[in-house]
Amino acid sequence: MPKIGVVLGGGASKGAYEIGVMQAIEEYFGMDSIHVVSSSSIGALVAQAYGMDQTEEMAKLWKSMDTNKHGRFFLSYSGNKVLLDAIDEVLAKGKPLPYEHYVSAWNYTKHRVEYVPFHTLEGEKLNKFMHGAIAIPLFSRGEKIDGDRYLDGAFLDNIPAYPLLEKDLDFIFCVYFDNCNYIFENEEFDKKIIKLIDFPNTQRLELMKYSADAFDSMVEYGYNYAMRTIKEIFENNSDKEIYDAIEELEKNRECTYKPRLTADIVLDNINVVTKRYAKRMSNREIKSKSKNKSPKN
Q1: N or C: where does the chain have the smaller number of CB atoms within 10 Å of the terminal CB?
Q2: What's residue 208's pLDDT?
Q3: pLDDT of residue 277
Q4: How far, rounded to the nearest angstrom, does the alpha carbon of residue 56 sit from its chain's CA centroid?
Q5: What are the DSSP E strand ranges found in 176-284?
Q6: pTM score, two decimals?
């Protein structure tokens, strides 16, 4: 039985694909084979709900989101209190996680990314960190936890492979929506990674559009795509043949290779994103105060 790791990147409405991917991995290998999941943004919600056996409840919530009230722009849901309360209710009914789960969260106060061990959290602490992990800057002020403000970690590390670097894993399934064939960290680590990146509508704005009607078909696509890839790779007789099949899959990608050193990505993003967000939030607060001032007689 191989020891499997999973990385679920952020992708707003495309998180539905990730549910199908998790279903395929569990069906083929069994839940006991999934040892560690690392995630960001919507991937955190998928990984947590899936591991707690609350996928059906989360699907009902997903489909119930009111586009007439909020529109089809996915970001409009960030920080919505009614939605966050509903997420809390779903997770409160869940079982203990069967795997370790690390979530990239942006600690805005301390200007750093943190890989929060969600498998050690419960109750109000879990709720607060989940609120922060999916809090999209500019559309939400984030979540205050122990004096620090937390926001969506996808803005610093959207493909959080880092927590899996030191884990004793045989293979890692990495789901992201950049449509770019990254090379992670080093050859030894990268050869374990099966990159699931061939999803429809790879344009950046597509992931911001929300459609309840598309949910089931997206889950089905994620399942079929992952299962097809798994069978292509793992229905071989030896580890060497499996690694060769992974390498062959990478060679056939119709996208360019790019190196992606986790530490470098995070360091580059911290200063740039933090400065931009701080400036915009400052301008937002100034405008808000200006509107609240009573006119002089």
Answers
A1: C
A2: 54
A3: 62
A4: 18
A5: 181-184, 193-196, 257-260
A6: 0.86
State the Cα–Cα distance between residues 276 and 120, nearest whole angstrom.
32
Weakest mean pLDDT among 10-19, 71-80, 148-157 = 71-80
Q: Alpha-carbon distance 206 to 113, whole Å?
A: 26
DSSP 23-68: HHHHHHH-GGGEEEEEEETHHHHHHHHHHTT-HHHHHHHHHH--HH
Task: Report which DSSP code applies to 166.
Answer: T
What distance in Å separates the CA atoms of residue 243 and residue 220, rounded to the nearest whole number? 27
Mean pLDDT of the chain: 84
CB 104 within 8 A of CB 157: yes
Q: How far apart are CA 104 and CA 114, in angstroms?
A: 6
Distance CA 222, CA 24 (A): 8
Contact 58, 90 (CB under 8 A): yes
Q: Which helix (H) or strand (E) holds 107?
A: strand 100-107
Cα end-to-end span (Å), the chain? 77
Instruction: Taking residues 37-51, report their average pLDDT.
Output: 96
Nearest to 118 by CA among 176, 58, 39: 39
Q: How confident is the model at residue 210 (pLDDT cuts 50, 70, 90)?
A: low
CA–CA gap between residue 115 and residue 278 (Å, rounded): 22
Q: Which residues pair with 181 in a beta bridge?
A: 257
How many whole angstroms separate alpha carbon 54 and alpha carbon 88?
12
Distances (CA, A) of 109 to 144, 185, 265: 10, 28, 19
**pLDDT tens track for 111-143:** 889 999 999 999 999 999 999 999 988 777 889
d(CA 186, CA 188): 6
